[in-house]
Amino acid sequence: MTTTPLPDTTSVVIVGGGPAGLTAAITLADAGVDFVLLDRLGEGANTSRAAVVHARTLEVLRELGIAGELVDRGIVVPRFTVHDGARTLAAIRFDGLDTEYPYTLMVPQDTTEEVLLARLHKAGGQVHRPYQVTRVADENNGVTVEYTDNTGVAGTIRADYVIGADGMHSVVREQAGIGFTGDTYPASFVLADVRMAWPIARDEVALHLSPEGVTVVAPLPDAAEPNRYRVVATVDEAPEHPTAADIQHILDSRGPGGDTKVEAVLWSSRFRVHHRVADHYRAGRILLAGDAAHVHSPAGGQGMNTGIQDAAFLGPLLARVIGGEPDAILDTYETTRRPVALGVVAFTDRMTKMATLRPLPARILRNTAMSLLTRIPAVRTKLAYRLSELANR
To answer: Which CATH architecture is the domain 9-51+108-179+279-352 placed in?
Structure first.
């Protein structure tokens, strides 16, 4: 936790110390822009949460010099498969993609944040914790940011610009008066890291279709905990802390059969999923990135990735403006990145609805169409580019 006194003025205030906020801070630090990064939490992520890093994100992080370290600390997964019970409907391979990273990388979010934070420190930046932002106002040719620290002491910073990377319930977005259009899925999601025996090879992420709900199982790096997997599943009403028995029941009823045995739950949670996109990414001197700008189904694992890419695009733009270029170039941030988020939300929404079809005739039609279409090489390649986010270059 950093207790360095905050300045009264700075060029940029970043609110939110997750992956998007850290990425934005690194780009500003590299450009020599002064900034203050505030986070309401006393420490960064200490659980795995988002665990997928796609090829396009690795390309972005390569420019920051940290892709190699993430790859070393993750597990390379070159295949994405879709199953209905024991039947494999589709197998999408990433190893033919035109990129230095032809795979999905499975690495827990706490590791990703640890690597990003170390890179920020190397660039001379830091995260100020815990500070709760209470007011953000674009006024008098600048932005006023009011906050309180963990003792309740209030303070104010004046900045040229503010980046709101403070999550789905963004104070910055609300203070800027930016709408967050969308809806909430009726089902809740189980999220768990487990140690288990699993009959599918550890070189693939497996999506299991079922009328009871969608289930994703993916391997996690297991140096510290052998046979570690991530399980994400929709259920009508998830328990607050899913147990090994809960996960076992989900996999027995929806999985491929065979030798599946959940030995221990290492961490678990539940959450509700929204599919929403901010009506605007910019309101004057206030800009949004990451989950403050878009949230969607975890199908495809694209949330954190899209947020990191937002920040990597926005940071250099802000550095150029602060360096003297016209403020109008910031408009390209919304025109470039918001269509990407709309596409991701639409894509993951289709995946989620397709995966949870209940009527038998619709499921038979879905399975037949998916099996036939993914036999076509061009279709498989297009899906691989979409999942890896290389289509967003």
So the answer is: 3-Layer(bba) Sandwich (3.50)
